[in-house]
Design goal:
The protein is 2% helix and 50% strand. The protein contains 1 helix and 29 strands. It has one helix spanning 296-300, and strands spanning 2-4, 11-16, 22-27, 32-36, 45-47, 54-59, 65-70, 74-79, 84-90, 96-101, 107-112, 116-121, 127-132, 139-145, 150-155, 159-164, 169-175, 182-183, 191-196, 199-204, 209-215, 224-230, 235-240, 245-249, 255-259, 269-275, 280-285, 290-294, 319-320. A hairpin with a 5-residue loop joins β6 and β7. The longest helix is centred in the C-terminal third of the chain and has 5 residues, at 296-300.
């Protein structure tokens, strides 16, 4: 659909808004950029501070604001209609690794690397509670299921806890493969898809059963840079750093497609993201160039497939990892 470049050098992370109308980009040079998909050439906002660098940016669910966390341990909120800074407040924790916007757009879930989670009121910044959800672990990743009020907290050694945010209790423990290179920050219908080196892994989180663990390439240096699960087609999507896109059926892990038709980049891809609602993918190569791709025809070719239905699966036949 489009190729353009707003910054030079690698892109650290990119996020679509839930409706696929906006894209946020964080560059290695410390810039935060927000783009409207229908007008990519003219950024809504482009922020670079002399005393802080952006670490993470998340859209509110209504698509009206962009909430960003910076290296000076401050949240900054931008209005997407005007591109202006509307609010900033300090983060209560000292070592935040990630945050999520709750579905009501009135709370932020904060995850710290010492295993502590907390919620703050938005937009006041007042802390609502704090819990030691995965103590004695150095956390590296988190994935949320806001519909069911749960968060999966993963430590650097692969140990993970599924935590109930409403009752403030752990539900189960599982073990993930390490190192993790591509971690989908959302649990989709109880499933977590992620990459570990060149392997693509799909895990049923409540039970800890690994439904498939596929090595996508034996070429040295290549890795999975983006992974996602499409609930409509029942397929798992993975993007490799060489620009190839893999599609596998779930839960069998059967390879349905392998293509490089989504991009004509030169060089190595560093990051990417997919929005199944807007049916688009954003891929960034090592120069920082954005390649926006239409995936509507690709998804249409996968329909109909058998969706994963947890109640219909014999999870006892898949590989158990660790549970309690």
């Amino acid at each position: 659909l489009a190729k353009l470049q707003h910054v030079a050098g690698p892109i650290l992370s990119a996020r679509f808004s839930s409706n696929g109308a906006f894209l946020s980009v964080i560059s290695g040079s410390g810039k935060l950029i927000a783009l409207r998909i229908v007008d990519l050439a003219n950024p809504i906002l482009r922020v670079e501070l002399s005393n802080a660098a952006p670490r993470q940016a998340e859209f509110t669910n209504d698509g009206k604001r962009l909430i960003s966390y910076w290296s000076d341990k401050t949240f900054r909120v931008f209005n997407l209609a005007t591109g202006t800074l509307t609010q900033q407040f300090p983060a209560p924790g000292a070592n935040l690794i990630t945050f999520r916007v709750r579905s009501d757009d009135r709370r932020l879930l904060l995850v710290e690397n010492n295993g502590t989670i907390s919620e703050i009121s938005f937009p006041t910044g007042v802390e609502l509670y704090q819990e030691a959800a995965h103590p004695n672990q150095r956390l590296t990743h988190a994935a949320t299921d806001d519909k069911k009020g749960r968060v999966l907290l993963a430590g650097e050694d692969g140990s993970a806890v599924l935590f109930d945010l409403n009752r403030k209790i752990p539900l189960s423990k599982i073990r993930l493969s390490t190192p993790i290179h591509a971690f989908n920050g959302t649990l989709v219908e109880d499933w977590l898809v992620y990459g570990s080196g060149s392997r693509l892994i799909l895990t049923h989180v409540p039970t800890g059963n690994c439904l498939f663990n596929e090595t996508l390439t034996s070429a040295g240096g290549l890795k999975v840079i983006s992974a996602d699960f499409d609930p409509e087609t029942g397929c798992v999507f993975a993007l490799l750093s060489d620009g190839r896109c893999w599609t596998l059926s779930a839960p069998s892990g059967k390879k349905l497609a392998e293509t490089d038709a989504l991009t004509e980049t030169t060089g190595v891809l560093t990051t990417g993201c997919v929005n199944f609602v807007g049916q688009i993918a954003a891929l960034f190569d090592e120069s920082g160039r954005l390649n926006l791709c239409d995936i509507a025809d690709w998804r249409l070719s996968l329909l109909p497939t058998n969706r994963i239905e947890p109640d219909e699966l014999d999870l006892s036949s898949s590989a158990p990892l660790f549970r309690s």
